[in-house]
Amino acid sequence: MSSSTLLVLSNPTGSHLRLLDRLPPETRIIAGDQIEMFREAAGTADAMLNCFVKLDLFRAVFLMAPNLRWVHSLSAGVENTLFPELVASAIPLTNARGVFSRSLGEFVITAALYFDKNIAQMKRQQQEGRWASMEVEELHGKTMGIVSYGTIGRCCAHLAKAFGMRVLATRRQPELSGSDPLLDAVFAPAQLGEMMAQSDFVVVCSPLTAGTRGMIGATELARMKPEAVFMNVGRGPVVVESALIEVLREGRIRGAALDVFDHEPLPSGHPFYSLENVLLSPHSADHTPGWSDSSMEFFVENFERYTRGEPLENLVDKKEGY
To answer: Fewer beta carbons within 10 angstroms: which end of the chain, N or C?
Structure first.
């Protein structure tokens, strides 16, 4: 393949940009976060990399580049990447699916241990200088139900199995996981409530699409056991936030561990801040040292496939939204 012109939509001071030095030396790279920076090169660009810029800038530059052959998102979620012209085009879109999954799986297990080992009460007693015996629980023998069994869900399942847990999951095509050794049962989306009713920990790993927005509301949450914990490491709007706040306030479930929210940053005074049965992460459960570098390294590997004319990894179904 001849040399490429790559448009990189990014804060130009981002440390992850240094990894672009690994691209073939003949690659022409234009990086920035202002539309004026791309006007000259957009007409000849054949590849575009979106590094977490706002959708309006991404769309504007895309429309200036009629010869694009590939677009990549440094993020795993693409709800802030898709727009009608990109969806309708034949241009392939890839993303960072799977790059951050291991850390998210570890957060899920951490949260499960936080509740079962009564960490919050331990810390309160320590701060109060008070010694009071307490009971703790084991993860062994409990059931984790995973909503949307993708790369994040598989990492959760792998760790849950290491603790001797029973693992259930939902996915659009349950037959694809019928022989998965990590799963004890697989459910279709229509059976979500049934799975949630059996679970001690409900873990949402769903991307945000038209079909998943508001997927878990009051009806679904009402199926949970009173002693169960709800977790979300997918996308905030998959859950009806007001319904979750209500069941938590009323103590109809044990608690929640949340990494994602309807609005981020979570506004000051939001109910989640004051609910003692909620563990909050500021959408940082996958922000390990060098997390953006890991995503950029995957892009560099995919760029090598692109220049060799090989199939790209992590192709996104643009109509489905993931």
So the answer is: N
5-98+289-308 fold = Rossmann fold (3.40.50)
Buried/exposed code over 72-91 (b: 16+ C-beta within 10 A; e: otherwise): bbbbbbbbebbeeebeeeeb
101-280 folds as Rossmann fold (3.40.50)
The alpha carbon dihedral of 294, 300, 301, 306 has a sign of: positive
Mean pLDDT of the chain: 97
Domain boundaries, the chain: 5-98+289-308, 101-280
What pTM, to 2 d.p., does this model score? 0.91
Has residue 252 got a pLDDT over 70?
yes
Residue 201 structure tokens: 């920990």
Buried b (16+ CB within 10 A) or exposed e, 8-45: bbbeeebebbebbeebeeeeebbbbbeeebbeebbeeb
